[in-house]
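Standup notes, protein team

Yesterday: finished cleaning the Acetobacter pasteurianus NBRC 3278 set.
Today: Ubiquinol-cytochrome c reductase iron-sulfur subunit structure.
Blockers: none.

Input for Ubiquinol-cytochrome c reductase iron-sulfur subunit:
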Amino acid sequence: MTRETEETAAIEQAPGRRDFLGIVTTAGTVTGLAACAVPFVQSLKPQDSASAHLPVDVDISKLTPGQQMTVVWQGKPVFIMRRTPEEIALLQDHALAEKLRDAESTANQQPAYARNWHRSLVPEYGVYVGICTHLGCVPGLNQPTGNTADTCGGYACPCHGSKFDLAGRVYKGAPAPYNLPVPPYSMPSPTSIRLGENPKGENFDFSTIEQI
């Protein structure tokens, strides 16, 4: 074969080599993208809802008066507050009730067994989903600084200024339209709370609340 013939053959074969390299490169790229896409697609699949909806038992034996703990229930923060005798008394103050939008808890934001002035099974413990009913921010706890309606503490939303008292009741003039939700819960013992399970004889579906 002459040199001219060899060069002609090389030129004719070059596109074939380029096509092969292109195929290999494309295949490698597609494989890499597929490998990245698998975890991404899997992350879009709904999580196992069976375990997510099981009741959550919380030990409150070490919670002292005036303290609060936060736990997670169905992916939501839940505030459990142990109120002092002074705080319990303030929740019954008529001066405080005058400042609240829904002091009597008429909106469906809690079970029937929590539709009372303390919005809970027992006055000592408050249990609320810690999500502001305005735009879904998580309110912070302000400790009481006095024994009046203006200094009784409560919850404040850091985003838009909504305020709630220590029973989760929203103040008038706040952007939030409703009180903080109360989840279904029971107290199997004086030192434990079971989130997601109503007391015997009670039936409350959390999905029926006005807003969260």
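Follow-up from PR in the comments: Helices lie at 3-44, 49-52, 85-90, 94-97.
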